[in-house]
Design a protein that fits this description.
six-stranded antiparallel beta sheet; elongated; about 190 residues; alpha+beta; single chain
Length: about 190
């Protein structure tokens, strides 16, 4: 396969992938980029090698770099985050903490967190953007989840989900440490 053929195949695969991740129909991408629907179909089917100008318009409309669209090393992406690279975001002298385990930007940011809350500690959060959802699973202790001032008891083994566009607090009102895993999904910027 020639370099040009490889580039054409990469552009086809990456354009289709990023259009899907952004949730754009062919018509939506055509409207955003100023590139015809027919041309986008030909590019995604690797039947044409578009001009640099066309490729730049598509990259801009998708909010990615032209390098990302042309990257032929890109296939299914797996990102491993060893424990020493997880990021400690919050902690208290009593030993409570949150650690960002991993995150992604696919269809809007998604983050996975490990939480420890010591007895008497809490973490309050301002409302997140509309459409943000948090999912959590308590593995030890009993979490008091406060949503808009209303308390919900979440004992070990229990999971919860809620729309996080309102004030919310994670509290340990008990006598043993709370351990939980939480995922946060934020809608993509429009």
């Amino acid at each position: 396969m020639s370099d040009l053929d490889q580039l054409t195949q990469s552009l086809a695969r990456n354009l289709k992938r990023w259009r899907g991740e952004r949730g754009f129909t062919l018509d939506a991408l055509a409207a955003r980029s100023g590139v015809s629907r027919g041309m986008i179909i030909q590019i995604e089917q690797a039947r044409t090698n578009p001009s640099v100008g066309t490729t730049v318009k598509l990259a801009d409309a998708l909010g990615v770099s032209i390098t990302t669209l042309l990257d032929y090393e890109q296939g299914p992406q797996v990102q491993l985050v060893p424990p020493e690279q997880a990021v400690r975001m919050w902690s208290t002298p009593a030993g409570s903490s949150t650690t960002l385990l991993v995150g992604t930007e696919a269809r809007g940011p998604i983050e996975l967190w490990a939480w420890t809350l010591m007895p008497g500690d809490e973490s309050a959060s301002d409302p997140h953007p509309d459409g943000t959802v948090e999912l959590l699973h308590v593995t030890a202790g009993e979490l008091t989840l406060v949503i808009e001032g209303q308390s919900h008891q979440v004992p070990a083994g229990t999971s919860a989900t809620f729309e996080a566009n309102v004030p919310h607090t994670y509290r340990n009102s008990g006598t043993e440490r709370v351990e939980m895993t939480m995922a946060v999904a934020v809608p993509p910027a429009r």
